[in-house]
From TrEMBL:
PANTHER family: ENDONUCLEASE RELATED, NUCLEASE EXOG, MITOCHONDRIAL. Mg(2+) binds at N257. One of its GO terms (molecular function) is metal ion binding. This is DNA/RNA non-specific endonuclease domain-containing protein. Residues 1-20 form the signal peptide.
Length: 401
């Protein structure tokens, strides 16, 4: 271990010396970036580190597009606030960059306030009559981070699609956790109020009967904003911030959110880091979670009511991630039942495929957190796509593991 660490240290010193001599730039993820952090675009894609070194390496004179999208958002260069919200910066040497006449350290390039991301409805249909939204930042043109298939009637996201790269485990640290935003997607529904504990209790009592909330909602168990595309799947701060849109969330019981679901997210990033190739991930919800009312009858759970008194914002029965490598044509689906209140008979009934992970050494990288009270399982693509039949069709030849 000491020899390995020494070799890494020597390699890093050598890399820095070479870059200083050749004029290349080497940026450390957690020491060379300013805050509030701008959006960084390189070769028309979001900036990301080298997966093996963990550093961002640029050639001399290579240019980045740096931006602070949004109203009254401006790029700051050192102590000077510009009157533009995006500009090109050029590598000079090591950590020094140029923007017009300004020359300074890369970490001194920042925004006057946090950049603004948006969710835009496209003309593309998904899962029948629903529309696909794209979420990202507008700099010269729109740069998409992830896409979401959204049901405007139920105010519910069927699935989101994004890529996870081998560098995703190198998530940049951040000084604060962003607030979720709703944009103009949810109409008159205020999503922050929907997720408030008081509203959860009110909705459960309305659906299940008086005081039934006391059986299900506690300090440790309640319905959380369950990320679909995980924050940590996005490496730099601005892309992480863009994951905090309510279109990228669904009501998820806390024990599962912090249990099996968190275990899956973390395990996938570790696996893809070793896998060495970016993969496509479709993360979605399916069905509606039920609980017995005060008469013992199973009732579907919803967190909202629209202006026509229709139930909206269903509590999903399932959360899932479909992982796909389009080059090797490998896929696998990982599913979590969104409830810790089901008995073994119910769980067996809800497990809709043969669990390809169970007892399979090829999935030793995935460890479910069995003490969270929820149940999760894995499917091959054929069985999964027969049950969840509204997703885009994939060309799959082998199992992803």
């Amino acid at each position: 271990m000491k020899l390995t660490c020494a070799c890494i240290f020597i390699s890093l010193i050598f890399l820095l010396k070479v870059n200083a001599a050749t004029g290349h730039c080497t940026l450390s993820m957690n020491t060379d970036f300013g805050e509030p952090s701008p959006v960084y675009i390189r070769n028309d894609t979001y900036l990301a580190p080298n997966a093996s070194s963990g550093f961002i390496l640029l050639r001399r004179s290579e240019t980045l597009l740096v931006g602070c999208p949004g109203t009254k958002k401006f790029v700051v260069l050192g102590n000077f606030t510009t009157d533009v919200n995006f500009l090109d910066v050029q590598c000079v040497s090591n950590k020094t960059f140029r923007a017009g006449r300004w020359v300074g350290q890369f970490k001194d390039i920042k925004c006057n306030s946090l950049p603004w991301f948006t969710a835009e409805e496209t003309s593309v249909y998904c899962s029948g009559r629903h529309k696909l939204f794209r979420i990202g930042y507008q700099l010269r043109k729109f740069h998409t981070l992830y896409e979401a298939c959204f049901d405007r009637e139920l105010l519910s996201t069927l699935y989101v699609h994004h890529d996870i790269s081998p560098a995703s485990h190198l998530m940049q640290n951040s000084s604060s956790r962003p607030q979720f935003i709703e944009g103009n997607v949810f109409g008159k529904i205020k999503m922050s109020k929907v997720y408030a504990i008081e509203n959860q209790r009110e909705r459960l009592n309305s659906i299940l009967g008086n005081n039934m909330d006391q059986q299900y909602i506690t300090k440790k168990q309640f319905l959380n904003r369950g990320h679909l595309a995980a924050r940590a799947d996005f490496i730099l701060r601005a892309p992480q911030k863009a994951s905090f849109h309510y279109i990228n969330a669904a009501p998820q019981w806390m024990r599962g959110n912090a249990g099996d679901w968190a275990a899956l997210e973390e395990a996938l990033r570790r696996r893809i880091s070793k896998y060495g190739t970016s993969v496509k991930v479709i993360t979605g919800t399916h069905g509606v979670c039920t609980l017995p009312d005060n008469q013992g009858i199973q009732k579907q759970l919803f967190l909202g009511i629209d202006e026509n008194n229709n139930y909206v914002i269903p509590v999903p029965l399932y959360f899932y991630k479909l992982v796909y490598d389009p080059h090797k044509k490998r896929a696998a689906a990982f599913i979590s039942i969104n409830s810790s209140y089901y008995n073994s008979t119910m769980i067996e009934k809800l497990t809709f495929c043969s669990d390809v992970c169970d007892g399979n050494k090829k999935y030793s990288w995935l460890r479910w957190r069995s003490n969270d009270g929820t149940h999760s399982f894995c499917c091959n693509y054929e069985e999964f796509s027969k049950y969840i039949d509204y997703l885009p069709k994939l060309d799959v030849k082998k199992l992803f593991y």
